[in-house]
Amino acid sequence: MISYFIQIIVFQLLLLGVYDLFLKRETFFQLNRVYLLFTPIFIMMVPFLKFEGLQNTLNSVVTINLPEILVSNTTQTISTSFVSSEQVFQFIWLTGIAVSLYYFVKKLNRIHQLKKQGEVEKYSDFTVVYIPNTDVAFTFLKSIFLGEYLTQKQKEDILLHEAVHARQNHTIDLLIYEILKIVFWFNPLFYLFQKRVSALQEFIADASVVQQIKKRDYYENLLSKLFQTETISFINTFFNHSLIKKRIVMLQKSKSTKKALVKYLAVLPIIGAMVIYTSCVNEVKGNQTATSKTPITETAPQQDKELTLKDIDKVPVYPGCEGMSNEEAKKCFTQNVAQHVVKEFSKDIKNAEITGRQKIVVQFVIDSNGEIKDVTAKSDFKELQDEAIRVGKTLPKMIPGEHKGKKVAVQFALPILFEI
Could you tell me which of 409, 20, 386 has the C-alpha nearest to residue 192? Predict the structure, then answer.
């Protein structure tokens, strides 16, 4: 999961860079709108795009990281004190979603309260709400909010502008990003994309209005004075101070020529690179048990393609775990391997230098016949390394993993903490 989020952030940064460097100064407003709305949806799909012809053979077996096990001369229980980074991330992520959702609902309620306070005037394709004791001007969905302190001329010009937002459903664009910001609250790029969309919508509305009134009158309206505005990210605010200068500059720009459309081709090599990348590199996609310290990762099996744990039709099955679902078999496998190691690992290793907790990383392969092969271990102490290899070799024969009806070799990495 963490790997997925990192990928979409990097991909977003690349496509946002394309927009800022090549597209945002062009007057192809509707095309830019499509680009900014399509980008987040496409980016979230890219990590799942797999083209077998592009995938690399990185290793001869699939490698799966198992949860860390604690072996102690005082206890023979599997360590459950370790919380995986994935679990911590999920807790923080869900907490952030809850907080973001709370503030989103709070903003919606504020708009609802404004509508209740105001005087409503209905038109065929939108509604105008006149708010007392303020000079705000903004649109939410099909409702246009105008403060009573605005002059009649301002109201007329602003209404032309805000009607464009209402008719073209600009609030929906912003709400899409608002939902993305709730789910991916930790991703600053969604905030930047939403800001670009908001600015673009103002350019679209301005371009429509100046076809109906004089540009000079419109400039005067924008520059007349500083206005109070609602600081809500998913409404279209007429008097957005930070945008006024950009809007005037864009109004003065000449219409982009058709030759400038070539700039949109700049995105193609980047999209191609993204697809190649996601087709060729390892992804972290597997589910973890509660005691795992590292995410489950995989490398390519003996076939000419890369697989993830989710892609394997059947994971290797530990004796006694037969007849279970794939997810249940994973948990059963993990628990039995841990129990076997704790039971078999000698607690009487003699070496005065071995103190405290020492980490050993064991690797072993369950081949296509279910046999335990190629057991290796790494440790700072040879005694621990040799004992880990011995214990690994005592694992029982298992039912091999399968993919597309073929039995495949699977490599496991097992971290062990030996405590004196």
Answer: 20
Cα separation, 138 vs 143, in Å, equals 9
Q: What is the pLDDT along the chain (420 residues), one digit of tens a residue?
A: 677 888 889 999 999 999 999 998 888 999 999 999 998 888 888 877 766 555 544 444 456 777 878 877 654 444 444 455 667 888 999 999 999 999 999 999 999 999 999 999 999 999 999 999 888 889 999 999 999 888 888 888 889 999 999 999 999 999 999 999 999 999 999 999 999 999 999 999 988 888 888 777 776 666 564 344 445 566 666 656 667 778 888 888 888 888 989 998 988 898 888 888 877 654 434 333 333 333 333 333 333 333 444 556 788 899 999 888 878 888 898 889 999 998 898 877 777 677 778 889 999 999 889 999 999 999 888 888 999 999 999 999 999 988 878 888 888 888 888 876
Sign of the C-alpha dihedral computed for residues 256, 257, 259 and 264 taken in this order: positive
| Partner residues linked to 291 by β-bridges | none
Please answer whether residues 137 and 146 qualify as being in contact, where contact means their C-beta atoms are separated by less than 8 angstroms: yes
Beta bridge partners of residue 145, listed in sequence order: 129, 138
SS3 365: strand
**SS3 category, 66:** coil
The sign one gets for the Cα dihedral 79, 83, 87, 91 is positive
Backbone Cα Rg of the chain:
30
Cβ neighbours of residue 338 closer than 8 Å, sequence gap 6 or more:
66, 67, 69, 78
3-state secondary structure of 128: strand
Q: What's the number of CA atoms in the CB half-sphere (13 Å) around residue 141?
A: 6
DSSP code string of 233-267 = TTSEES--HHHHHHHHHHHHSPPPPGGGGGGGGGH
Contact 35, 24 (CB under 8 A): no
100: number of Cβ within 10 Å = 18
Q: What share of the chain is helix, strand, coil (3-state, %, to 5)?
A: 50, 15, 35
